[in-house]
Amino acid sequence: MSTANKPSVPQQVFDQREFRNALGTFTTGVTIITACRPDGTLVGVTANSFNSVSLDPPLVLWSLAKSSNSLPAFEQAEHWAVHILSHDQDQLATHFSKRGHDKFAGLTIERGLGDVPLLAGCTTRMQCKTAYRYDGGDHIIMVGEVMNFEHSDMPPLVYQRGNYAIATRKELADEAEALIKATASSNGSDENSLSYLLGTAYFQMYGKLRAFGAEHGLNDTEFFVLNALAARQGRSLEELNRLFVYAGHSPLLHVLDDMSARGLLQIAVDQGDHHARGLFYLTPLGQELAQQIADAGRQSEAEMLANLGTVDAIAMRTLLRRFINLPGYDKLDE
Ligand SMILES: Cc1cc2nc3c(=O)[nH]c(=O)nc-3n(C[C@H](O)[C@H](O)[C@H](O)COP(=O)(O)O)c2cc1C
């Protein structure tokens, strides 16, 4: 093992936690590095210290804490494999960051150079031969020569400030921003406001479905009632009205009677209810139409999400869910 010159004594006396926080601002990918001990047992650790070193020869590095149980194995290993995790492998990353359990139990693995275990479903895999090891304070720096590699289009997992994350392309956001600024200056409306964006997205998405409803003889109000009952049957008139007013429409008048007359709804009196109220249900005909609308909705959503791409679709769902759950707003009690 080569030993680097001793680093000079740092001027600043710093708090370890703060130093970790400072390092955490450097966004990285997440890897799992695996090896096989001479006795055949397998080792693996989650590591975000991975980095590229050289193209020719192809060298990569990562550092392993001297306190790691896996240290002796990696100090002896002639080969190890780097798995750059894909966006949906955060649980695997957590699994391999925990000590004191058989990390490979129940996992399907392949074998690589030196019998190294290879994990499936990663964005990239590299099989490496140990080239150098350096002492690096409380870590050992492992440098490996990449003997072979394979990579895919799967978006990688990201690690930032102690959290797993996904990365969405910045230049697309810039393009959108420039477009919004251009339209805002031409017609004076604020097309960058959330209300504008959410409203437009809503109309864009439901426009298609409304058109589908209209083809089947449903106006906007009837479309709403059908979907509300498909989400949960057995709602009272007051409840449907409350939902309806919440969604910004005027209260229902003769809509329910019309829909019942067309065989889409039926009313049943809930005998268990103290006030014996009428509750609305979809008839089999109504259920069939609701099902067709749901199928059309799923299909148009799948088309839209395919246009966005995997990571942006996840990002959109995540942000909308966070937005919906912001404190201080009335929740739609479905
Ligand atoms: C996202 C993440 C990144 C990590 N990166 C490293 C690293 O680069 N080097 C390291 O020694 N430990 C790192 N760890 C901690 C190790 O994964 C953990 O201590 C190790 O798996 C312990 O297992 P062992 O004692 O069985 O070797 C990281 C943990 C997480 C969750």
TrEMBL record:
SMART domains: Flavin_Reduct. The keyword Manganese does not apply. Coiled coil: none annotated. Signal peptide: none annotated. It comes from the Bacteria. Keywords: Oxidoreductase. Residues 23-166 form the Flavin reductase like domain. The keyword rRNA-binding does not apply. GO terms for molecular function: FMN binding; riboflavin reductase (NADPH) activity. Belongs to the non-flavoprotein flavin reductase family. This is Flavin reductase like domain protein. It comes from Collimonas arenae. The lineage of its organism: Bacteria, Pseudomonadati, Pseudomonadota, Betaproteobacteria, Burkholderiales.
